[in-house]
Amino acid sequence: MLEIKGLTKRFGGLVAIDGLDMTINQGEIVGIIGPNGAGKTTLFNLITGFLRPTKGEILFEKRDITGHKPHRMAAQGIIRTFQATNLFPDFTVQENIVAACHLKPKVGIWEAMLHTPGSRKKREYALSRAEEILEFTGLDTRKDQPAEELSSGWRRTLSVAIALAANPRLLMLDEPVTTLDPERVAFIMNLVSRVRESGVTVAVIEHNMKAIMDYCDRIVVLAFGKKIAEGSTEEVRQNKDVIAAYLGV
Amino acid sequence: MSRKAVKPLSYSALIIFLFLIPLFVTSPYHLHIFIMAGIGVMLACSLRLIFNSGQFSMAHGGMMSIGAYTSALLVMKLGLSTWAALGVGAAAAAVLALLVGYPLVRLKGVYFALGTVFLEEIIKLIAQQWTDLTGGVVGLTGVPKPDPIVIPGLLNIDFTSKVDFYYFALVLVLLALLILYAIERSRINQIFLSIKQSESLAESVGVNTAKFKVLAFTMGCFFAGLAGAFYSQFMTVVMPSSFGFVYTVYVIVYMVVGGEKKFYGPIIGAVILIFLPESVRFLKEYQPFVFAAVLMLVIFFLPEGMVSLPQRLKMFFRERRKHA
Amino acid sequence: MDSATLLQSIVNGLMAGCIYILVATGLALLLSVMGIVQLAHGEIYMLGGYLTYYFCDIAGLHYLLALLIAMVLIGGLGILIEKAFFRPFRHGDLAPTVILSLGLMLLLQTSAVVTFGGYTKVLTTPFPGIINIAGVILSQERLILILITAVFVGGLFFLLYKTEVGRTMRAVSQDMNAALLLGISVDRVSSFAMFLGCALAAVAGGLMGAVFSLSPFMGGFALMKGIAVIVLGGMGSITGAVIGGLIIGLIDGIVPPLLSVEMASTIGFLVIILILLFRPQGIKGQPSR
């Protein structure tokens, strides 16, 4: 589904990603791990358009999407979450999700300003989609709470909910469960499984090894901007290079 | 009376009251202040629209200039009807905003603000230099008043008295507020607010933030141009110094002092801050002190503006009651 | 234009550039280290001029001493202003700082009008006399103005790049939160930056008063030039402010004899627009994406 060829990103003298080749296959949950500074978030930023690559290609379903702006990536169905929880703090939980429904339904500028019956129908559709997502993620009881008042566990859940509202085909989660307690981790990772079952491909960056091992089909290991290993959890766990990279940190 | 009916009823009462003002307020000088307040309201509310998308624009004064000069020149040099010129003046400001918008919105935060200050200065300079077109530093004088509205046997408004201008301004401002309010309640405003709270998050869910920021800027500047065009027909003089940097800052002040979070905040701010200097007119050169003092007080004690006053007072008294 | 007039114009341009540089570097410093837009910066400049005038013409001190005293006093005023008003709003929402600085601008300007009267004054020239170089007559005071500016700007650069204090200021300007985490006292750095910024503006005002004139309203002009310079040079970049100031100053010096004073400003802005078209972040600014 997603192919990365020779991806390189340089910041002045620093090479963050170095000639990376990688694929993400349709329908899988792939985990991306690696020591701090390995370039995992940079990789996400490059794929989703928040950074422009210095060199290399990114192909989504055989189409070249290298260097497109983030909103165009999102329109293709590539939706990401952020490592530092990113929400609309003044909006309520429900408003957050409705705002994220921007791509579905698409509302035209004129019809919105003129408050046409069509726009009203679309608004109802957005509200019903939001309702579905609220129930799916367990946020329905908190839907009128201002987002900034949520606990950290529910904030992470909300970020996932926001990403879901944007109608993803490839969902890219950046450390969705790092530092959360095991119950919350299981809850969110379960959501992720169910999302995959509904046909969405998932890529997850995580430091929580249990979450990765329990829920991912395949793992890619990055270190110093390069891919140093990939394979099933067993293969990766026993890989000497991987162990060395982590111990060396 | 049902609760739902109270709001529209009180607004209607307010509007009727506004239409009746010239019956009690007869001095042309006072009507002039009311008209200026109306312009202030239109400017502050339209600026708020731009701020809703998270952009700190200081170009409003410059856009007023564009509207004023365009409208005045179209009437004086091309003989266009003043009503059409009003619209074209506003459109001119909007077009300019659209043109400079895309490069401008790439700037972040402070830098966007400074870029708009800069834009304003350029407009002023061009107005000062292009003497053939704009009359240079002296500006345009003898700008025609609005074309008379004549309905044979019924109306003959020739805009010789301030009362005519008062109604003109009132209708214009009410129409502008209507449009602005429609935008406020639409999905577009929600998109603006989402960009304001987190541009990256908005982008990640598919919002073309650049496009919408330019849209907000353009729409806001349209109304600034409209205000400028009205002004040119009202004051009949347009000079480069008429709407400068300081004027822009005043508009920002109206908005912030009134309160940015609510739609009616800038309305309150503009009304208070335009009538206030008048009431302390006797202080003469010490007048700006009062203005400055009000500003500083609001920033420090009521950062959310006057609209938060009832809420703040409630909390204040509740605290006192607790400790009593 | 003959070579004598050309040289004269260049010197005039350099001189104007010096004033702009002093104002703009102060503004850029405040912008980058504190993240505030200081609209009253022009008024600080104006006060510097008036204070220099007071110490020089009225108290009878030597001009340079008066300039230094004014600089220190205005710098101190800056620290007070920062502590009293701007501290809570650093690197945050812009609106409060704009309003505050507007209020400050009104306050200072009105105080000046009320105290000094609303008309222009001229300082008695501190360095009468002319120097003759290659048949060109240049007034000594203008050359000294350029010299003084060079000293101050050089000192600023030394401070920023060769001292510990300067390093911390640059750290705070890049990332205030990271600097806090590193244990840097952001409060002290801000106060110091404010002192420097206001001091530079005060010097500019004092120099301006000596070579030209003073008026309670001279701040507006300085602010606009300062903003134009930092837009050109790249907001928040001190080096950019110097380069930008020189460019705009030279334009303001060379164009008026050739065309007109108004054309100078216009050409200045056109140059800025042109450069911004190719480099929207300014000459030495950081790209936004």
Helix count, DSSP H or I runs of 4 or more residues of chain C: 11
Named at the architecture level, the CATH assignment of chain B is Orthogonal Bundle
Q: What percentage of the residues of chain C does DSSP assign to strands (E)? A: under 5%
Compute the average pLDDT of chain B: 86
* Biggest pleated sheet of chain C: 2 strands, antiparallel
Unreliable stretches of chain B: none
The chain pair with the largest interface is: B-C, 40 and 39 residues
What is the beta-strand fraction of chain B? Answer: under 5%
Q: SSE order of chain B in H/E notation?
A: HHHHHHEEEHHHHEHHHH
End-to-end span of chain C in angstroms? 45 Å
Annotation field: number of helices of chain B: 14
Counted up, domains of chain B total 1
The structural class of chain C is mainly alpha
The CATH class assignment of chain B is Mainly Alpha
> How is the largest sheet of chain B built, in terms of strand order?
1-4
Oligomer: heterotrimer
Q: How widely separated are the two ends of chain B? A: 37 Å
What's the helical proportion of residues of chain B?
Answer: over 70%
CATH topology of chain B: ABC transporter involved in vitamin B12 uptake, BtuC
Helix content estimate of chain C: over 70%
> Globular, elongated, flat, extended or rod-shaped: what is the shape of chain B?
globular
Q: Would you summarize the structure shown here?
A:
Chain B is mainly α and 324 residues long.
Features:
heterotrimer; A: 249 residues; alpha/beta; 2 domains; 6-stranded mixed sheet; 40% helix; 24% strand; C: mainly alpha; two-stranded antiparallel sheet; 75% helix; globular
How is this structure best described in words?
The complex is a heterotrimer of chains A (249), B (324) and C (289). With 249 residues, chain A is α/β, with parallel strands linked by helices. Helices cover 40% and strands 24% of the residues of chain A. Chain A is built from ten helices and ten strands. Chain A has a six-stranded mixed beta sheet, with helices on both faces. A four-stranded antiparallel beta sheet of chain A has the order 2-1-4-5, covered by helices on one side. Chain A starts with a strand and ends with a helix. The model of chain A has no long low-confidence stretch (mean pLDDT 88). By secondary structure, chain B is mainly alpha-helical. Chain B is built from 14 helices and four strands. Chain B has helices at 3-24, 28-52, 60-78, 82-105, 110-129, 131-134, 162-184, 187-197, 199-204, 209-235, 245-258, 265-279, 287-301, 309-323; strands spanning 140-141, 149-151, 155-157, 237-238. In chain B, α2 (28-52) crosses α11 and α4 packs antiparallel against α10. The mean pLDDT of chain B is 86. Chain C has a domain at 19-218. Helices cover 75% and strands 3% of the residues of chain C. Chain C contains eleven helices and two strands, in the order ααααββααααααα. A two-stranded antiparallel ribbon of chain C has the order 1-2. In chain C, β1 (130-133) and β2 (136-139) form a beta hairpin. Chain C is globular, with a radius of gyration of 19 Å. The chains are: A alpha/beta (249), B mainly alpha (324), C mainly alpha (289). Chain B binds chain C through residues 51, 56, 58, 103, 106-111, 113-115, 117-118, 121-122, 125-126, 128-129, 245, 249, 252-253, 256-257, 260, 285-286, 288-289, 291-293, 295-296, 298-299, 303, and chain C through 31, 35, 37, 39, 85, 94-96, 98-100, 102-104, 106-107, 109-110, 113-114, 220, 224, 227-228, 230-231, 235, 262-263, 265-266, 269, 272-273, 276-277, 280, 288-289.
